[in-house]
Amino acid sequence: MTVLSHAWQAILQSNMYHVRDAAINLYGLYLKRQRFNAAFWSELDRLQASEWLTLAEKEQAQCKLLAAMIQHAYEHVPFYRRRFDEYGIHPKQIQSIADLAKIPVLTKDDIRKNYDTLLATNVSAKSYLVHHTSGTTGTKLRFAISKQLHWTLKTAHLYRHYAWAGVNPGDRRVTLGGRAFAAKPPYWIYNRWENQLLLSIHHLTHQTANDYLAKIKEFAPVFLQGHPSGLARLAEYMCEAGQSYPVKAVFTTGETLLPDQREQIAAAFQCLVFDFYGQGEALFHAGECDRQRGYHGFSELGVIELQPVPNPGNLALVIGTSLHNFAMPMLRYQVGDLAQPVDHVECSCGRGLPLQIAHVVGRVDDRIYFSLHPQDYILPATIRMYIKPYLQDGQNYQLYQRDFNCFELYLVADKRISSEQKGKLRQMLCDVLGSQAHITVEQRETLLTKGGKMRNIISNIRPTDSSAAN
How many independent structural domains does the chain possess? Predict the structure, then answer.
């Protein structure tokens, strides 16, 4: 943990709410200036106009972007120059989406081992950001992303998706997310620069649910966004109390949206739920329209490939290629998710963005239960948020709950994990799970999977009420 992290934790644990609010709004001002500048508005206008081109026209435009990225990678990225030469690939051979299959997939291990040679030699370090992401498989990964892609293109594509529900930039929104900005009440803060009420997902309980709902009603948002598990939890409390609050739309992202969660959220907020699929690496985005027939691939941003693999559910590996990350090109990157392909690419909405995914199998983790009561639990997003800063590049984890107060944390890494890191992880989990928790930490070569997917959180506890499904 950095000195800055320690300082922020001290603010959260104190009663210095005015300091916390000022710090978050200062950061909010910075984000607004980065995201909502002239380049954003120009890109949003372009995207909203071009989405009504035909499927064939959109594919032709995508292939042009792909050819330019392939040529750039070969000329300026040592890793791809070496890989193309090794496999006898010339950039001119990659002119269509089908041609991409000639290139070997890029794995997380490839990025970890070849980070420096994956950076483009003709791109200044000032033009990109270095990020860390845990991804849907939990493994921490360092990567570079161009500032234009991170700030302008990602934001424009996101708000193009919001527009499908009649939502505009600046509309009042509630975000129920996984960031830590509160340790004591109140568990929310107003980001005035984006007209956004931030709610802490980590403190949403049966005891605080009424306070959350009262704050939402007072704020009167146009729409909500956040993790489906958190939004479904709030919706569950609302439905139990016989309450609802109509909004224009709810947008979910970051986890797999389950059918029962969609129903709960839609009933509580009396609107459609629009799921969004993307990643920190910004390889591609995909999102649902109001017809709810699958996920449209945002073909202007990246290429989605679904590679069939043997499995009972006819699922496919998700592979993505960024069309705009010239700082660190990622060609045929294996995301780590499984998805069910659609059997039709045209949508009755009339947009030229093809339907590509019927269902995404991303994060499907268990809840941590403290009793057999179905409402006494911690969401997976809380565990992920707290554990991420303690992981090093290339490390992955799995938290296994054997009993109410008995937990085992398994760690996988290329190198031996120090006793110091184990101790810090154990202490952090005690802070989250309670001082009565007995936690063992051990290093393993592999982690448990279910249906071909690695789960970060597994609980042996099953509450008595069957409605508490994951």
Answer: 1
Instruction: Confirm whether 309 is domain-assigned.
Output: no
Q: What pLDDT digit, counting tens, does each position of 213-228 carry?
A: 999 999 999 999 999 9
- Tell me if 74 is assigned to some domain: no
Residue 55 located in a structural domain = no
| Burial tier of 171 (Cβ tally within 10 Å: 0-12, 13-18, 19+) | middle
Residues 14-40: pLDDT tens digits?
Answer: 566 778 888 889 999 999 999 999 999
pLDDT of residue 206: 85
Q: What is the CATH number of the domain that holds 454?
A: 3.30.300
Q: Is the pLDDT of residue 469 over 50?
A: no
What's the whole-number mean pLDDT along residues 258-273?
A: 96
Give the Cα separation of 196 and 206 in Å (integer). Answer: 24
Question: What domain range includes position 438?
Answer: 365-459
Does some domain include residue 284?
no
